[in-house]
Amino acid sequence: MIAPGPEVSPSRRPSKINVRVLRQDGPGTPPYWERHQVDYEPDMNVISVLQKIAAQATTFDGKKVSPVAWDCGCLEEVCGSCTMVINGRVRQSCSALVDRLLEDNPEEIQLQPMTKFPVVRDLMIDRSRLFHSLKRVQAWVPVDSYFDMGAGPRIPREDQEQNYPLSQCMSCGCCLEACPQFNKVEVIRHAGETDEAFDARKKQAYDAEFIGPHAISQAMLFNSHPVGKNLQKERLETLTGTGGIQACGNAQNCVAVCPKEIPLTTSIARAGRAATLHTIKKLFDR
Amino acid sequence: MANNRVLVVGGGLAGLSATMKLAELGVAVDLLSLTPVKRSHSVCAQGGINSVNDQTRQQGDNEWNHFDDTIYGGDFLQNQPPVKEMAYWAPKVIDLMDRLGVTFNRTPEGYIDRRRFGGTLYKRTAFAGATTGQQLLYALDEQVRRWEVEGLVKKYEFWDFLGPILDDNGRCVGAVAQDMVSMEIRSFAADAVVVATGGCGLIYGRSTMSVFCTGSAASRCFQAGAKYGNGEFIQVHPTAIPGADKLRLMSESARGEGGRVWVPRKPNDTRAPKQIPASERYFFLEERFPKYGNLVPRDIATREIFNICVNEGLSVDPTRMCVYLDLTHIPRHELDRKLGGILEIYEKFQGVDPREEPMKIFPAVHYSMGGLWVDYEANGEGGLLPGSPRNQSTNVPGLYAIGECDYQYHGANRLGANSLLSCIFSGLFVGPGIVNWMKSNKAAADLPKSIFERAVGEHTARHKKLLSNASGTGENPYLLHQELGDIMTRTATVVRYNNQLTEAYEKVSAMVERSQRCSLADTGNWTNQNVIFTKSLQDMIPIAQCILKGALMRDESRGAHFKPDFCMPSLQATDPTERRLEAEKWCDAFEENTSKFLKSSVCSWKGQEPDLVFEDIDTRLMKPRPRLYGLVGGEVIEEVWKQRSRSKEESAPSKPAATKQLAGSV
Q1: What is the pLDDT averaged over residues B501-508?
Q2: Per-residue DSSP letters for B8-31?
Q3: Among the residues of B59-121, which ranges form H helices?
Q4: Which of A78, B105, B487, B501 sits in a 20 to 30 Å window from A180, CA-based?
Q5: Nearest-CA distance B401 → chain A (Å)
């Protein structure tokens, strides 16, 4: 608040930082690289670099440009907004510390939008598909009402400790960016198309594709809740349907990039077993 | 209610709980937010949520005590009925969140585990690791998604609320908003508008708040005629991690789980913290506040940390101000289970493991106790009348405010783990009142189109004017924002002086005009974040004026508002008789100050600056008493005060509230 930041360490720090940003003016327009330069300060992260770029709105060779658009929120890696590809790796830009990035590559910092989602502008992407997947697996507890009905069921500590990590998923999309089976779906709006028609077309396109590791993990979270599991069958129907668990190629990239270290592959394995049982049970129930 | 629609602005805990409750009541809701609602600032809340519970109850706790702690901690600056209702609802709120699947930490037997938070002696706080806000928000987000699938909720994410629409009678009948992607400006007809847009930390430049907590939505309501209350009460959290872009919160739960705040007794001690023996460590909170220790209310802890660094020169770092927050005596697995989330934040951003090394922390702007003025209707027991359309209503009929952006629950200082409660409670409670409000009014959708077209026209004109400011000649909005943040942080945080506030008020008032001359680096009409930010900057200024004006006019010290030139001193005398006499005088001065300043500051917008009046506070349940945490001579003052209260009671024996007052006193 009132305290100044720590003084610049006496060791050799650059006076300037070079930043290369992959920009795009809007959907369907070609992307292009742009170079920026900002003053180095101690304790910077990629957010503070982007804030400086916005304030100066000038490229490294003096050309006036519009500020780079990007998405951010909490700046402490719990909201999931500021995901992008930094020096080739998908991560949150708030926790990407400049000193570390410069240790890996002192020449420049490279910023790109995520590649699996449609670009809105520059580093802003449209992740509505990610949230749509949560609808597909009905990721909620189907309570009767919000009236006062007393406490919920008692939960063993062991169960809480298994579920809490899954519940920390902040819908950032890192796992989807890294997943070889999750491919970009971009639905372009037709001229004159109504909101409703456009939404319906998007829904149809999303429903035909892989649901993604984050949603599989959420399905497992709710299937292990005493009341959440009332929708177990419906969730397993989704997971055994189009774009469900069989689309997973077991590359295990998801778990490697998850910033919250959620055991996604464990969830996927559990979902696989549950889906198999569900399918067999359906055969016998016929 | 087929034709009724409600517009909820903001998708944090308050907005989402209001949305799901309204949907359950059969009302269609448009939910508008600057960000996907799952990313709202409530995710940053760490420590927990308070309620009396089975365990504390058997230790002598009850709802009334929670109410008392909240009022006493807030230095009596709250109207009491809403706070009482909230405290009595608290166990029900936690039960509901439990049913919705929140992964609260559990005891070995499977009950919800609790920890102690500031300003209370009971373990009331339920928690989910150290990411309780995130977990509560997700549970509500999931329920709202369920209603979205049902078709009762329609989300408008990445939309900026530009202002309420008022009809010719001054009733709110909808709002104008802007799509932050396509930049389309359109109206939303609504039979009620609920503003749940959180705090205004960005006015201070850097704070613990998320980037969208600009206060601009509340400001837009304020400029349209809604009143703004107690703006000067800004909570500065005692423990945060300084950073270049943001000051990251280090939750009070770190102290709730046994974390200790200390500095070396010797100034400029260069030894590593672990090399300093216990006898040379100054645990200043524990020494000065033996009853509450490290868990004194936040305003007090903040002032002590500030004082130890600024006035006593005991900062632990030669290059900046900070103190140690030490967890290293607690077993690692215990820390991971209960505090994992916040320890990871420290580790990630500071590169130091707080399980091994004490953390370095310093206060930061954290929460706005003040906000939009809202009404209430009390019931016979001094709580709220459920279903009254007046509850949570601003002075603009049809415009409601809930959560951090209302001024109603926390008075002069908020207790830790009460904010999540006030957000969810006000969100759930507002629903039935709105339903009743809508029954008595003509549906907004049936009003003449011209009302809505006119409002859209005004906002379109403002937008176009800003885009047409010649580039490069006017103010740079980002630099102007920095300037505003610097002024506010310097003059209106922990310690306040009238000469500084006067100067700040003049400078900030000049920004009303300066901000109109901002020139933009982006004049396009696609995802233009530059123009959205500039508009929010323009709207930060009226709220900054409310904060400064309130601080200036309030010549006293109360909770988070501290003026060294106007504060109640400790007792000096050592002789018991003299000390007693001094305490009598102290109580006289306290009573005089109470009659003068135990009032809400309420601002109305007058075009260029706010007009401020002081408004009486409803203390029907509990008479104000001195707030004496750690004050030297406090025990004598308390004794004198109790005698006075008793003799007053005897002279007026018929008041039922008076007995409750005694029951509630510490």
Answers
A1: 98
A2: EE--SHHHHHHHHHHHHTT-EEEE
A3: 63-73, 80-99
A4: A78
A5: 21
Last residue of a domain, one of B365, B384, B408: B365
Model confidence at A130: pLDDT above 80: yes
B298 is catalytic: yes
- The residues, ordered by sequence, that sit 6+ positions from A245 with a Cβ below 8 Å of its Cβ are A216, A239, A268, A271, A272, A275
The DSSP H or E segment spanning A121 is: strand A119-121
Query: How far apart are the C-alpha atoms of B126 and B124, rounded to whole Å?
Result: 7
The CA distance from B410 to B369, in Å, is 6
Is there a domain that residue A1 lies in?
no
Same domain, residue pair A137 and A79: no
CA-closest candidate to residue B51, choices A167, A148, A78: A148
Chain A hits for B96, Cβ within 8 Å: 146, 148
Nearest CB among B129, B139, B348 relative to A95 is that of B348
CA–CA dist B251, B44 (Å, integer): 10
Domain limits for position B385:
5-236+367-447
Whose structure tokens read 């599991």? A229
Alpha-carbon distances, residue A117 vs A94, A174, A239, B29 (angstroms): 20, 11, 22, 28
B413, B74 in Cβ contact below 8 A?
yes
In sequence order, the 6+-apart residues with CB closer than 8 A to the CB of B287 are none
What is the token pair recorded at B268? Answer: 């400029």
The residue written with tokens 């490697």 in the block is: A256
- Tally the domains of chain B: 4
* Pairwise CB contact (< 8 Å): A4 & B317: no
Compute φ and ψ for B67, nearest 5 degrees.
Answer: -60, -45
| CA distance linking residue A70 with residue A50, whole number of Å | 8
Q: Sign of the CA dihedral B464, B194, B155, A194? A: negative
Instruction: Look up the domain containing A202 and give its range.
Output: 127-144+153-285
Positive or negative, the Cα torsion across B229, B233, B237, B243?
positive
pLDDT digits (tens, 9 = 90+) for A252-274: 999 999 999 999 999 999 999 99
A35: tokens are 């170079």
Take residue B406 and report the two structure tokens written for it.
């209302």
Q: How many domains does chain A have?
A: 2
- Say yes or no: A227 and A170 in one domain: yes
Mean local confidence (pLDDT), B34-51: 97
Cα distance between residue B633 and residue B642, in whole Å: 14
Residues 6+ apart with CB under 8 A from A140: A222, A228, B101, B142, B143, B145, B146
CB–CB of A148 and B96 under 8 A? yes
Residues of B in contact with A150 (CB under 8 A): 95
Q: Tens of pLDDT along B450-468? A: 999 999 999 999 999 999 9
Cβ distance A170 to B43 less than 8 Å, yes or no, reads yes
Cα separation, B169 vs B155, whole angstroms: 29
Among A4-18, A79-93, B55-69, the minimum mean pLDDT is found in: A4-18
Candidate from A7, A69, A143 with C-beta closest to B527: A69
Residue B385 and residue B243 share a domain: no
Rounded to a whole number, what is the distance in Å from the CA of B211 to chain A's nearest CA? 5
Residue A101: predicted pLDDT: 96
Residue A4 maps to a domain: no
Report residue A209: phi and psi, to 5°.
Answer: -115, 170
Query: Are residue B90 and residue B219 in the same domain, yes or no?
Result: yes
- How far apart, in whole angstroms, are the C-alpha atoms of residue B493 and residue B363? 10
Tally of residues, chain B: 666
**Under a CB-based contact definition with an 8 Å cutoff, are residues B213 and B234 in contact?**
no
State the Cα–Cα distance between residues A246 and A275, nearest whole angstrom.
Answer: 9
Residue A261: inside a domain: yes
| Amino acid in position A36 | H
